[in-house]
Amino acid sequence: MKSEKVKEECENTENNRNKPFIFLFIISLFTINLSLFTLRCFADEPKTVITADKLEYFGEVKKYVATGSVTIERDGAVLRSAEITYYEDSSETVIPGHLTYNDPETSITAEKAEMNLDAKTGRLVGAEVFYKKYNYHISGREIEKRGEDYYFSPDATFTTCDAPVPAWCFKGRDVNAVIDKRLTSRDTTFRIKDLPVFYTPYLWASLIKERQTGLLMPLVSNSSTRGFSLSLPFYWAISENRDATLVLDGFSKRGIGTGLEYRFIEQGGSSGNWWAYHIRDTELDKDFWEVRGSYENRHPDGLGGYLNVNYIDYKDFYQVYSSRWDVKIMRYLESVGELNLPLPDSRLYLLSQYSQDLKNDTSVVPQRLPEVGYVRNYSPLGDFMLSASLTAGNFWSEKGVSAGRMDIYPRILHSMGKDFVVTQSVALRDTAYSYYGEQDPGKMTQRAAFEYDVTGHTRLYKKYSSFTHIIEPSVGYHFIYSSDNALPVLDSAELYGKTSNVELSVLNRGLIGGRQLFAIRLTQPLDTYNGNRPFLPLILDMNFNTPLPLTLEARYDVNTGKIETLTSDVGFKAFDANFVVGERYDRQEDVLMYTTYVAFSPHRLVQMTGQLWYDAKGGGLRNLTINMRYKKQCWGFRVEAVKTPGDFTMKVLFDLTGLSSRSPRGLPGYSPTL
User: Fold this and answer.
1) Measured distance CA(519)–CA(545) in Å, rounded
2) 20 to 30 Å CA-CA from 107: which of 86, 469, 499, 602?
3) What is the reported pLDDT for 48?
């Protein structure tokens, strides 16, 4: 049959408003070809283009039938099928054979379908709905489209894997999927390669990347001291600016632990992160608590403040219940709260501070409860700069020293010179004490002090073609006269005593293109009050960025010829692995610790890291942590092994792409310590 092209444009009248949709859209303009039909509609709706081998219209029932390579294009969406039947009055559309549908967000395949194009509802048979944005696949023998983004199936599977046989999927009854919101199902099994490995009577999963209420991935671990444990977190998106995480931990050797984490951010700038944890230790037959949190509400022009709380009611809490080395080695827990009022060039504050000693007796630690103060920032006074502070504090100790203290500390600063800059400062300090409590009750003392500092500094540099060498020598003198140098220590203010020190320093730096390659500072302090041995330990600070990243801090006693302290870290790369090796040495404290960190990827799907702390002074291995992460297209898992003295812990956390993880996105989170 000879091909002939016919083109017809329909007007925007009441009649052509009733012309049909073909799968989701209204047809108001069409072109008929004896071998190829093309329909185009121009009205208030976007343009629709339909092509088919044959188009028939049955006027008695107002039915359109398009057959033969039917393609419908509208607004970026494309529908393809061999045959489509459309009923004009009801907008019902029947697609009796295989169909595919694609738009920028969704792809659908089905064996057959019945749709209502006005309501955007219908029934899909043998269908798969693919949501491209987050790689969601929903498949079922029958899927009802109950709205634009709402699907229901009496029996369906859900996964984010692309393979025909997915690496994992959830299969359940009465599946409700609301795209960009949530998925729920009953009698659900979690399957690996279609093999059921886990059953739950009810499943709730988030189908968005934003914060969403729901269960997070569980954490499985085993510890030699805590036993087998399962951590089940639940995330609650309370509002746009508030959320919470509830945690239930089960330890086979220690009992049940429960935790609550709460976070918020207010429009006025205040924010808070709070964590409370309780465990009933069945081995010790006791209850223990941990409370940590922070609140911040700072204002540059008005009253503001902050609060940091860190408290445990069992000194060995972290040693027993935590596997984190940085938590286990903490010496103090400090809680601090402050209210402050900014003023022109100054500020007022009210401060309270409480410290827990996790090694020794906390009852002898002086607690700052409270302190009120006024601080005057450096302000110009002619050619000078003036600053001052006035504080009144109460230091309370249950069994140690308790006292009230008043401290006045004005300072004057002056700087002069251009090539050689000389900076001087003079200060007076008067401190009064009133003691109470068990030690020296009713005793009153006063300390008067004078302080003088002078520093001379210059900079010498030479530029080469691409390299700049800078030398910065300096000399300083620090003098303090104090009328009382044997005060009980409440904080660092009591360490302010008789001093007469000279300090010589040279800083060596090299730069290429403005980027620092190295910096080496050598400092020699001298104590003129130290008789025949005025030289204090020589201090060396080094920092290299190339060829090997290196940092080093060392103190060398020139009188004994021995290194007093040494802290160093050097990084390098070998066999596609990144290494950082460090040393911590303190002769007086008898500490010699070696540290190693390594990160490498033996395979493109595997990332591994390891960290080691070794005590060479007899403690042996203090911490060994190995992490491995395996990540594929739609799933992954993380394994962590931690060895500390008296405990070995293994943790396993699975990650199913597209489902909520243990760290929900949204408000800045506060990480629980356990």
Assistant:
1) 9
2) 86
3) 64
